[in-house]
Specification:
Layout lengths: L2 H29 L5 H9 L4 H11 L5 H13 L13 H36 L4 H15 L2 H15 L17 H39 L2 H8 L4 H38 L5 H10 L3 H29 L1 H5 L1
Helix pairs in contact: 1-4, 1-12, 2-3, 5-6, 5-8, 5-10, 5-12, 6-8, 7-8, 7-10, 8-10, 9-10, 10-11, 10-12, 11-12
C-alpha cells in the first residue's frame, strides 16, 4: 500500500469516531434546552390538553429517560438511521438530501471564488510590496474583512438587483420557469452570483492577506536569492518557486474554515432565500424538531470532517514529507 493511500485510509478511519462523538455531543447539548416538539404542537393547536401532550410525547418517545433516548439515538446513528422528522413526518435523510445539494453548490462556489481571487490578489500585492497596488489591495481587503456578510449581501441586492437589475435578488430559479438540463444550470448559476460573492468575499480578504504575508516570508529565503542570482525573472520566481511553498498555510487555513463557511452559508441562505440547509435548520430550531436538527448537525459535521480530510490530502500532495511522517 502506497504512503499516500495508507495516509488516506488512516485519516478516513479516524473520521468515524470523530463524527460519532460530534453526534453524541449534539444530542446532549440540544436536550439541555427547555421545551420539546410537543410544546410547539400544543402552542400551534391552542387548546392541547395535558392528556394530548402526554400522548404526543409517548408517540415521539420523549417520555423515556434521557439515557434510554440517548442509547436509542446512538444505535440508530451507528447504522446511519437519522430517524423521522416529528413535525413533517418524513425521513430526516430525505429532507436533508433535498436541501444539501443547494448548500454544497453555494459552499463550493464561494470557496472557489475565495481561494482563486484571494491567491491572485495576495501574489500581486506581495510582488508590488509597498507600491500603490499593494496599498489598494490591502485597504480593500481590510474593508471587506470588517464588513458583516448580511449587510454586504443586502447592499449587493440593492445595487445589482434593484438599481441595475442585472441579477436576481433571491431564490435558486424563477418560479414556474420550467427549465431543464443546461438551461436549468444556467438559471441556477445566474441566481448563485450574489450569494456566492457575498459568502466568498469575506474569505477573499482573509486569503489575500495570508497569501501576501506567506509570499513575503518565502521571498526572504535563500533559494529565492539563489534563483535571482541565476537571473530568473520575478514572474518565474513568484509562480514557479515561491507560489507552491506559500500555499501551505493557505491550505491549512482553508481546512479549518470549512466549518465556518458552512455556518456562514446559513446566514447568506436566509438573506437570499437560497433553498439550502440554512432555512431547514432555522425552522427545525424554532419548532424544536429534535430529530431533524440532530440529523442536519450530524450531516453538516460529516461534510466538514470529510472536507478537512480532503484538505489534509491536498496538503500531503503539496508537501510529501507530511505523508511520510
Amino acid at each position: 500500500m502506497g504512503g499516500a493511500l495508507r495516509f488516506a485510509v488512516v485519516r478516513l478511519l479516524q473520521v468515524i469516531p470523530v463524527v460519532m462523538a460530534i453526534g453524541a455531543l449534539n444530542f446532549v447539548l440540544l436536550n439541555m434546552a427547555p421545551g420539546d416538539v410537543a410544546d410547539v404542537l400544543a402552542g400551534q393547536m391552542g387548546h392541547a390538553t395535558p392528556e394530548l401532550m402526554a400522548q404526543l410525547r409517548r408517540e415521539f418517545g420523549l417520555d423515556r429517560p434521557y439515557y434510554e433516548q440517548f442509547a436509542i439515538y446512538l444505535g440508530k446513528l451507528a447504522v446511519l438511521d437519522l430517524g423521522t422528522s416529528h413535525l413533517q413526518q418524513l425521513p430526516v435523510i430525505d429532507l436533508i438530501l433535498d436541501r444539501l445539494p443547494a448548500t454544497l453548490i453555494l459552499m463550493v462556489t464561494a470557496i472557489g471564488i475565495a481561494i482563486v481571487v484571494g491567491l491572485l490578489l495576495g501574489v500581486a500585492a506581495a510582488r508590488r510590496q509597498g507600491g500603490w497596488l499593494d496599498g489598494v489591495i490591502s485597504v480593500v481587503a481590510l474593508i471587506v474583512y470588517a464588513t458583516p456578510a448580511f449587510w454586504l449581501g443586502l447592499m449587493l441586492i440593492v445595487a445589482f438587483s434593484i438599481h441595475l437589475d442585472l441579477v436576481p435578488s433571491g431564490g435558486m430559479s424563477r418560479i414556474g420557469a420550467g427549465t431543464a438540463g443546461f438551461a436549468y444550470a444556467l438559471e441556477v448559476a445566474h441566481h448563485l452570483i450574489l450569494p456566492a460573492i457575498t459568502l466568498g468575499l469575506f474569505y477573499v480578504a482573509i486569503y489575500t492577506r495570508l497569501m501576501r504575508a506567506s509570499m513575503l516570508e518565502i521571498y526572504r529565503l535563500e533559494f529565492i536569492t539563489t534563483a535571482r542570482a541565476k537571473g530568473l525573472s520575478e514572474g518565474r520566481i513568484a509562480w514557479t518557486h515561491a507560489f507552491r511553498n506559500a500555499l501551505l498555510p493557505v491550505v491549512t487555513l482553508a481546512g479549518v474554515q470549512i466549518g465556518h463557511i458552512l455556518g456562514g452559508s446559513i446566514l447568506v441562505e436566509t438573506v437570499f432565500a437560497w433553498p439550502g440547509l440554512g432555512r431547514l435548520v432555522f425552522d427545525a430550531l424554532l419548532q424544536r424538531d429534535l430529530n431533524l436538527l440532530l440529523g442536519i448537525l450530524f450531516v453538516s459535521s460529516a461534510v466538514v470532517v470529510l472536507a478537512s480530510l480532503v484538505v489534509d490530502l491536498v496538503y500531503g500532495l503539496l508537501d510529501p514529507r507530511i505523508v511520510q511522517k
